[in-house]
Design a protein that fits this description.
binds zinc ion; 5-stranded antiparallel beta sheet; alpha+beta; 2 domains
Length: 245
């Protein structure tokens, strides 16, 4: 069964590779008999003016949802690597080994964490980590990190409360995540997010099918207005019909 689109617009294939050139030029529409939702198709690039703050917001949100108890910053030793990218790749391996050591020391299976790279002014990587970990001795951490990577400068702080956690997250984690070649900008363990409420509260979609259309959200809004259909804007989406108050 085909549900016609209310816009006098027809679905089109969208470019396979998103880029800032196409950012928000297209939309995706989910429409049922009584209601609909349309979402702006963003490129999600970190270099895109529009998407970058949204991406940063996502990292911050994800970091907060893990309810961290410990904030760790690890550094690299530039003398040991030809490029910052090489140093960053070594830090990813180093952090994997380090968290196994921490877990073993604490008699646990694993350490839930989220890790985010930042580039220093000189371009070298810092790795900021929020974790749910017990007490870790700073000197042990420094000595172990040196053994694993050749760098001994580390910073560790216990997070006293949620307010402090939020401050660390926006100051260090969400400031300017950097992608070094061969690594991810940020990543987290599967057991990191403990607050699942949000996913459960997501409203049901009007239909199973999403249509991609070659029109920005504003054009759809105009079409709805022209047809006298009340709708609501929610940032990068509009909704109409049932569910619109
Ligand atoms: Zn974009």
């Amino acid at each position: 069964m085909t549900t016609p689109l209310p816009f006098g617009l027809s679905p089109v294939p969208t470019p396979k590779k998103a880029s800032p050139l196409y950012c928000s030029e297209h939309s995706t529409v989910n429409r049922g008999p009584q209601a609909g939702v349309a979402i702006s198709l963003r490129c999600k690039c970190w270099h895109c003016e529009m998407c970058q703050p949204i991406n940063r917001g996502r990292v911050i949100h994800r970091a907060k949802r893990g309810d961290p108890s410990t904030f760790i910053t690890l550094t690299s030793n530039p003398a040991l690597y030809k490029t910052p990218d090489e140093a960053a790749r070594a830090m990813v391996r180093g952090w994997r080994a380090l968290r196994r050591r921490i877990a073993r020391k604490q008699g646990r299976d694993q350490i839930p964490f989220i890790a985010v790279f930042e580039a220093t002014k000189a371009g070298w990587p810092h790795l900021h980590i929020l974790a749910r970990a017990g007490w870790i001795d700073q000197r042990w951490l420094s000595a172990t990190w040196k053994e694993l990577t050749g760098a001994f400068i580390v910073d560790i702080r216990a997070i006293q409360d949620r307010g402090r956690a939020a401050a660390y997250v926006s100051k260090y984690v969400g400031k300017d995540p950097h992608r070094f070649i061969g690594t991810q900008r940020f990543w987290n363990s599967r057991d990191w997010q403990i607050d699942r409420e949000e996913a459960d509260q997501r409203p049901a979609l009007p239909s199973d099918r999403w249509w991609k259309i070659e029109a920005p959200l504003a054009e759809l809004a105009n079409a709805l207005a022209a047809q006298g259909v009340p709708f609501e804007w929610h940032g990068h989406r509009i909704t109409w019909g049932d569910g619109t108050q």
